[in-house]
Amino acid sequence: MKVMKKALIGTALVGALAIGAGASNGTLSDFYAEGNANGNSIQTGTVKLGGTTNTPIFNNITKLQPSETPTQGTDITITNAGTLDGKLSLTLSEYALTSGLKNGAPSDTDMKWVKLHFDVVNAAGKTIASVESGATKAELDNGVKTLNTLLSGYTFKSQESYTLKSSVQIVRDKAADQNGLQDLTIEGNLSWKLNQL
Question: What local confidence, expressed as pLDDT, does residue 59 receive?
Answer without folding.
Answer: 83
